Amino acid sequence: MERKHMSAFALYQTLPSELHSPHQKSSVKVDIVKPCGIIMFPEQEEVECVNGELLGALLTDLSKLNNSRERASKLFQWLIHPIPAKSFFRDTWEKKPIFVQRKNLDYYMGLFSTKEFDFILREEDVQYGVNLDVTSYTNGKRETHNPPGRALPFTVWDFYESGCSLRMLNPQAFSSTVWNVLSILQEQFGSMAGANVYLTPPGTQGFAPHYDDIEAFVVQLEGKKHWRLFVCPTANFNEADIGKPILDVVVEAGDLLYFPRGFIHQGNCLPDAHSLHITISSFQKNSWGDLLQRLVPAALEIAMEEDVEFRRGLPLDYLTYMGVQNSDKEDPRRERFFSQIASLMKKLTNYAPVDAAVDQKARDFLHDCLPPVLSPDELASSVQGAPARWENGQVKDVDIHITTQTQVRVLRAGCARLCSDGNAVHLYYTTDNSRVYHKEELKSFEVKAEHTDAMEFLIHSYPNFVTVGSLPCDSVQEKIALAELLFEKGIIHSAEPL
């Protein structure tokens, strides 16, 4: 009998209730993959774990933790359970793929769903090419079918029914839960945590085999998907070049697939089920090479100003023995030339402004960051929850009453950073960032020289609250003025509502 095709949203609505038991146990099997083969872990006993249906409760519990770094660590541990985070970063991170098979459809429930996807299409201004891509991959050809303008449900679901895959590019802009999860995880990675959602019809494929420049955590939310991973043969490859997969698995709801940047991956839906997964990504452009791209030009500029050896002229005749056309020549002058280059490169490290280059990377990170999601207590004790209002023809509670006894701290461990450009010190902060990537410019303001010690004291005191009176400023007025400025910009909050 021919199976009647149903949309993912229709399938979502008809899922039997027993698939969503919040008390279901997980039988967890972990496959760690090396390029040379697969290592199978022994079957583990059934273990109790945090079901995704309880994700909201988990996030509520995490918001009560005093330290945002601890919060990030615990949420990451939930993401990769049962693999200990310490061993993951030691043995797997950036090295090899890993597949966590949980046999628990509900593990990630609450993170995102087809129902939420449909709601976003109906209620939000989702734009093709900006927020949503419609793609297909048939007969070895990948196509994008984005019309101009807003993605309306009728057209989007018609594309889906025609066999197209849907990719939501920035679900954190629409989903508060995804925003919360990513804003926490970015402190675990020290790098932007981003996400894409992929909804694929049964029996189809949306993308050609490819590799990415990110660390990818594929979180299967609904249905299932067949994944194959390959070692990348060359930067420019075609499907015939990639050989046999090093990993060939069906990832079902509740499972996790991690693979480092550079691994070719290909996913396709099986005929009997749609697939909804969210890929959480991080560490894009966060390599030593990316840091050196900032560091080396600055080091050269300093070296040429301070060291005459870098300003000496090249040999008069160097074009006669250097360059590609002379690369096969056996000429002692070539050896001396390379030796001089090596000497200068080694000497260049003496002029490398490493801290300044790191601060440039840090500013990029702060610009990439999502703003923090505030807990009810944080909201009540920060400028966002201040009681100022219009009432009975008058402005009420607009004054901020900060005294030397007021206890304050920065809102998150990584939400603010002092950086110097050599002429002035600025404080960069994330609390006014947008949920849409780079929609706003990076926020900063100049910090007076006499206030830099106080800012360092505040940043380094986290997660502890400190009294405004303990700030190392010259006068009580300056202590209070600095605290009021930071409070108004949402960078600090108080231990108790003001």
Describe the structure.
There is one protein chain. It is flat and about 70 Å long. The strands form four sheets. Strands 1, 2, 3, 4, 5, 6, 7, 8, 9, 10, 11 and 12 form a twelve-stranded antiparallel sheet that branches. Strands 19-15-20 form a three-stranded antiparallel sheet. It has a three-stranded antiparallel sheet with strand order 16-17-18, with helices on both faces. It has three domains: 228 residues, Jelly Rolls (Sandwich), CATH 2.60.120.650; 65 residues, Orthogonal Bundle (Arc Repressor Mutant, subunit A), CATH 1.10.10; 126 residues, Outer Surface Protein A, domain 3. The N and C termini lie far apart (68 Å). The chain is built from 13 helices and 20 strands. α2 packs antiparallel against α3. Helix content is 30%, strand content 21%. β4 and β5 form a beta hairpin. With 498 residues, the chain is α+β, with helices and mostly antiparallel strands. The relative contact order is 0.10.
